[in-house]
Design a protein that fits this description.
The complex is a heterodimer of chains A (256) and B (244). Chain A has one domain: 2-Layer Sandwich (Ribosomal Protein S5, domain 2). Helices cover 28% and strands 27% of the residues of chain A. Chain A has four helices and ten strands; from the N terminus they run ββββαβαββαβββα. In chain A, helix 1 crosses helix 2. In chain A, 45% of the residues are buried. Chain B has 244 residues and is α+β, with helices and mostly antiparallel strands. Chain B has three domains: 45 residues, RNA polymerase II/Efflux pump adaptor protein, barrel-sandwich hybrid domain (OB fold (Dihydrolipoamide Acetyltransferase, E2P)); 77 residues, OB fold (Dihydrolipoamide Acetyltransferase, E2P) (Beta Barrel); 86 residues, Ribosomal Protein S8, Chain: A, domain 1 (2-Layer Sandwich). Chain B is built from five helices and 16 strands. In chain B, strand 6 and strand 7 form a beta hairpin. The mean pLDDT of chain B is 89. Classes of the chains: A alpha+beta (256), B alpha+beta (244). At the A-B interface, strand 3 and helix 4 of A face helix 2 of B.
Chain lengths: 256, 244
């Protein structure tokens, strides 16, 4: 992670600095339920990004005056650890972190049935342990899995992925260097079942045509992310089953 | 009217479960004629109804449920208790005394104080108001002995078993008294800590293996074996005691 801009971000064979093709995502791994004291939790590693998410609730809102009469209040905190970047970052929430907390909250809220639990609050904490570009997308992805792990009813898992323009080429899932040296970066969050976009930001310059291509590219990336999320959630329970050696059916009508 | 999963298959939120003619059941929702899962769980199709048995959930209060709550606050007219639900539950003084409540005479903290555990029943609850409890029934009120364990409320039906078969079996095998709160708290009180330990072990086993069949038999077997071991150990100590 050198801070100097390398001479070439994409070589003559269309291979990027870390060996990826233009439409290839960084290797991504998600683990579910790793915090014992949270109601739901998840951990993601996407390339060099390492992010933890914890969910508490739905629970009584404190302070009480913030409670909403018709739905649950979703509160989120995106925070970068002081050691997560090259130069030490002050642990106090910065302007940027506040903004990201807001956009992450707003990209996740449409998927949650907040109206089922009026007057309560759902608290979401996203802690970036190591950052290498695209942490808001990875944050949304991992937070959505943590919400599902907490047993909060949701319309769908939200997956997020960025697309952008580097040295005149449209590329998927930009790293920190590509983001800083490239021409444009466009994070996008996507709700697959409804085919809806819940977050779309962009900085830099793209032509109308490029923009459309970038949106499609990012959406393709989101679909890959979505599969990883589902596999991660399933893995949590299949491991437990295999450990038992007898995985089959629960008896019918075991209710009281 | 296609169906997209086999019965008892693991699904995650957003998975498309069925289309058109089906009716959405628990942990599902219908949008534009399509039924999606809303929680991680096992899908089931029953006639026209599609539902998901959640694998992890928090407690949602239901009128008539027996719960184990913890007093968090004593107010002028009653108590506020934590029942592991999204809402705190209220226990009014008139639902704890068998006579009208007189604020001048009755001392509420001496009845139940902060930190006390209560067995109570939910008498009223809807989404506009917090749940309301009563302790005016047999076997309810303050817990004075035994130990409490917590499991996820989704697994409670499994601990109870068909017509209570599982819990009756554990009671018989361990000789413990077991009170199950629908909110995932279980009270176990036995003659000795050893009996209680056995019961806790059995319930932990049920929680871990809730999705498997023939569980009652395996738990019975485990309890019998554990008891056997214990008796052997006792005999050994007795014998060594004699020789010494």
């Amino acid at each position: 992670m050198s801070q100097k801009k390398p001479e070439k971000l994409i070589d003559e064979n269309d291979i990027r600095l870390d060996g990826r093709k233009f439409n290839e995502m960084r290797p991504t791994k998600i683990e579910v339920g790793i915090l014992a004291n949270a109601d739901g939790s998840a951990y993601i590693e996407q390339g060099k990004n390492k992010i933890l998410a914890a969910v508490y609730g739905p629970r009584e809102t404190h302070p009480k005056h913030l409670a909403l009469p018709d739905r649950a209040l979703l509160r989120s905190r995106y925070h970068m650890a002081p050691f997560s970047v090259q130069e030490r970052k002050s642990p106090a929430p910065s302007r940027r972190e506040l903004e990201l907390s807001k956009v992450i909250r707003e990209s996740l809220e449409p998927s949650i049935f907040t109206e089922y639990y009026p007057r309560t609050s759902i608290d979401l904490f996203i802690e970036v342990l190591q950052a290498d570009g695209g942490t808001r997308c990875a944050g949304i992805t991992v937070a959505s899995v943590a919400l599902a792990d907490a047993g909060i009813p949701m319309r769908d898992l939200i997956s997020a992925c960025a697309a952008g323009k580097v040295e005149g080429r449209l590329v998927l899932d930009l790293t920190d260097v590509e983001d800083k040296a490239g021409e444009a970066d466009m994070p996008l969050a996507y709700q697959p079942s409804a085919n809806a976009i819940t977050l779309l930001q962009m900085d830099g310059m793209l032509t109308g045509e490029e923009f459309e291509q970038a949106v499609n590219l990012a959406m393709e990336g989101c679909k890959q992310v979505s599969q990883i999320q589902k596999d991660a959630l399933r893995a949590k329970y299949t491991v437990a089953k295999e450990g038992e050696g007898e995985k089959e059916e629960t008896e019918e009508g075991e209710e009281e | 009217m296609p169906v997209f999963y086999e019965r008892r298959q693991l699904v995650t939120p957003g998975d498309l479960l069925a289309e058109n003619d089906y009716v959405p059941g628990e942990n599902t929702h219908k949008e534009n004629g399509k039924i999606y899962a809303t929680r991680v769980g096992l899908v089931n199709y029953e006639d026209k109804r599609v539902y998901v048995v959640a694998l992890k959930s928090f407690y949602e209060p239901l009128i008539g449920d027996t719960v184990i709550g913890k007093v968090v606050e004593v107010t002028l007219g009653g108590w506020v208790t934590d029942i592991r639900a999204p809402y705190l539950a209220m226990l009014r003084a008139s639902d704890a005394l068998e006579r009208p409540f007189k604020p001048q005479k009755d001392d509420l903290p001496s009845l139940f104080d902060v930190g006390d555990l209560l067995i109570a029943k939910i008498v009223a609850y809807d989404r506009t108001r917090d749940p309301l409890l009563t302790v005016l029934e047999r076997g309810m009120g303050k817990i004075t002995r035994g130990q409490i364990m917590e499991i996820t409320p989704a697994k409670i039906p499994r601990v109870i078993g068909k017509q209570g078969s599982m819990v009756t079996m554990i009671k018989q095998e361990t000789g413990c008294q077991i009170t199950i709160g629908q909110n995932g708290r279980i009270l176990i009180s036995g003659k000795s800590p050893e009996d209680e330990r056995l019961a806790v072990m059995a319930i932990r086993k049920i929680e871990q293996e809730a999705h498997t069949t023939g569980l009652t038999d395996r738990v019975t077997e485990m309890l019998k074996k554990e008891k056997g071991n214990k008796e052997v150990k006792e005999n050994v100590t007795e014998e060594t005691g004699k020789t010494d």
